[in-house]
Amino acid sequence: MENQSTVETSVPCLAAMRCVLGDISQADGSASLTHSGTSVLAAVYGPCEVRMSKEILDKATVEVFAKPKAGLPNCADKFREQHIREVFQSSLLVSQHPRSSITIVTQELEDEGALLATSINASCLALLDASVNMKFLVAAATAVIDRDGNITLAPQEKQTSEDILATLTVVFCDKNYSIIGVTSSGKFSTEQYDKCVALCREASLNVFQFYRESMEKKLSKLM
Known about the structure:
The protein is of the alpha+beta class and 223 residues long. The protein has helices at residues 75-91, 115-129, 190-222, and strands spanning 5-9, 17-21, 29-35, 38-48, 61-67, 101-110, 138-146, 151-154, 164-173, 179-186. Strands 1-2-3-4-6-5 form a six-stranded mixed sheet, with helices on one face. Helix 2 (115-129) packs parallel to helix 3. The longest helix is centred in the last third of the chain and has 33 residues, at 190-222. It is globular. The chain starts with a strand and ends with a helix. The model is unreliable at 9-13 (pLDDT under 50).
């Protein structure tokens, strides 16, 4: 508990974000991230031993478990696991840890929108807290298109699923802010897609800044 660090900020284009680092003593790294009404707890274990059946000779095995708020994981949780795994398989330096395992566990605490994006951002913070080597950092943001054609970032207060026509979650890397992953639902035009990506890219810049503030505050407490 000694390395626990809390950061709260309100950045342009984003609802207020708040995180607590290092609050799970059994994990190698952890982050509790709250973004407006959505809250996710992420824990990282490893690099450590991996079961022989999952062992890869030249790189680490990345495992992801997405736990719902209550009950057993459903199809949506399995989809979230797959997408988070794909994001971090590309961003982690897995070749530095052959025949080992890096496990990411996310726990949904509250979902008021943008659960996937919040899970990815919480996982990245937990990996930073665990000092796991990465090729680049990742940040995700979710844009929604309502029935009037308005495009906003999620989560938004008082916005229900009936108001939403389409949703796009876009993941960026911090090297050149290029897209490394997109998931979407609903119908939208090419012009709307471009506007959503631009809005999510702007939001991701603020998420990267939030990472820096979070780690700076944690390191300042250790000095």
